[in-house]
Amino acid sequence: MLIVIIISSLIVTFILLYLIKSKFDNFKIKSIPVPFKLNIKSDKVIVLSKIGCPWCDKLGPYLDTAKNEYTKVIVNDDNTFKFDEKFSELKEDERESIIKGARDLLANTGYFFPTIVRNNEYFIGFPEEEILNKILNE
User: Fold this and answer.
1) Are 131 and 138 in contact (CB under 8 A)?
2) Residue 91 has what pLDDT?
3) Within 10 A of 136 (CB to CB), how many other CB atoms are there?
4) Domain count of the chain?
């Protein structure tokens, strides 16, 4: 009787393993989309942020000590923008380019915060400290 139970358990185990394996054998990775190409005409670091985002708040001290010039764009819940005082000091065509670029970026990559843009390269989420220092200080 014990042998029948052991053999039955082994058979059920092998069937389950086979079914799991066959499920993964049919798994296909979708092609990775080409990264969104950004075209902002500004040499400033642009920070897209959201009020209440803990990672955006964590970014604050890094921005306070940044050597590179930056402007902060806050995305409101209704998808409008609120700009810092540095933004108003930019030339009109640069401001328009940042607004268009921010809208395009969010539409193509999603609403993830913070998003940092430098030289049309974007970093979604809070980067590692080494990368963040390169973005803000080199």
Assistant:
1) no
2) 92
3) 21
4) 1
CB burial of 105-127 (b: ≥16 within 10 Å; e: otherwise) equals bbeeeeeebbbbbbeeebbeebb
Assess if residue 105 is contained within a domain. Answer: yes
Predicted local confidence at residue 92, as pLDDT: 92
pLDDT tens, residue by residue, 31-40? 555 577 878 8
pTM of the model: 0.70
Of the candidates 94, 92, 112, 111, the residue with the CA atom closest to the CA atom of residue 39: 94
Residue 79 lies in domain = 45-137
Tell how far CA 112 is from the center of its chain: 5
Which two structure tokens, joined as six digits, stand for 19?
């079914």
User: Residue 60's domain is classified under what CATH number?
Assistant: 3.40.30.10
Which pLDDT value is given to residue 69?
Answer: 92
Residue 54 lies in a domain: yes
